[in-house]
């Protein structure tokens, strides 16, 4: 990995914090409201026991992988996992092409926001977490 400037390392840290600020609270809410999460997943046509498994995967991704990305441990893999997760769920939960007209604008916006988040996660997967991370500390020790 090329040496980054201090500003680039701070930018990477801020980026990781902002991404975690999206995923960690969402994952926590799914965990403490597991039954509701399963119900929402089931409302999208994913039946039991896959709805429970899907909810658990969402919690693992949003809470587990986002915390790994936040602290920068195995950050490339965590970012790649979150990118795949975000990309896949976008087609299930924000399928703007198949919603009533009154939902079209909101679902299309959410879909393309998820695509942008996926792009940012892929950048972390490609370039790493920066020096202000557990991965960065291991390289310099």
What labels would you give this structure?
141 residues; mainly alpha; 6 helices; 79% helix; 0% strand; globular
Task: Give a written overview of the molecule.
The chain has 141 residues and is mostly helical. The protein has one domain (6-135). Helices cover 79% and strands 0% of the residues. It contains six helices and no strands. The protein has helices at residues 6-32, 34-43, 50-71, 75-93, 101-127, 134-140. The mean pLDDT is 95.
Given as residue ranges, the uncertain stretches (5+ residues, pLDDT < 50) are: none
Major sheet attributes: none
Domain module tally: 1
Mean pLDDT equals: 95
Radius of gyration: 17 Å
Percent helix, as a range, is over 70%
DSSP strand content: under 5%
Structural class: mainly alpha
Number of helical regions: 6
Please give the alpha-carbon distance between the first and last residues. Answer: 15 Å
Topology order in helix (H) and strand (E) letters: HHHHHH
Q: What is the approximate shape?
A: globular
Strand elements, count: 0
């Amino acid at each position: 990995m090329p040496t980054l400037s201090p500003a680039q390392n701070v930018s990477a840290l801020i980026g990781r914090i902002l991404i975690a600020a999206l995923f960690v609270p969402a994952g926590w809410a799914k965990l403490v409201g597991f039954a509701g999460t399963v119900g929402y997943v089931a409302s999208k046509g994913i039946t039991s026991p896959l709805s429970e498994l899907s909810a658990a995967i969402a919690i693992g991704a949003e809470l587990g992988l986002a915390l790994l990305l936040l602290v920068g441990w195995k950050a490339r893999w965590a970012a790649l996992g979150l990118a795949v997760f975000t990309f896949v769920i976008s087609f299930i939960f924000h399928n703007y092409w198949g919603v009533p007209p009154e939902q079209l604008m909101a679902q299309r916006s959410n879909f393309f926001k998820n695509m942008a988040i996926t792009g940012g996660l892929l950048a972390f997967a490609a370039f790493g977490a920066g020096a202000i991370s557990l991965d960065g500390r291991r390289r310099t020790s």
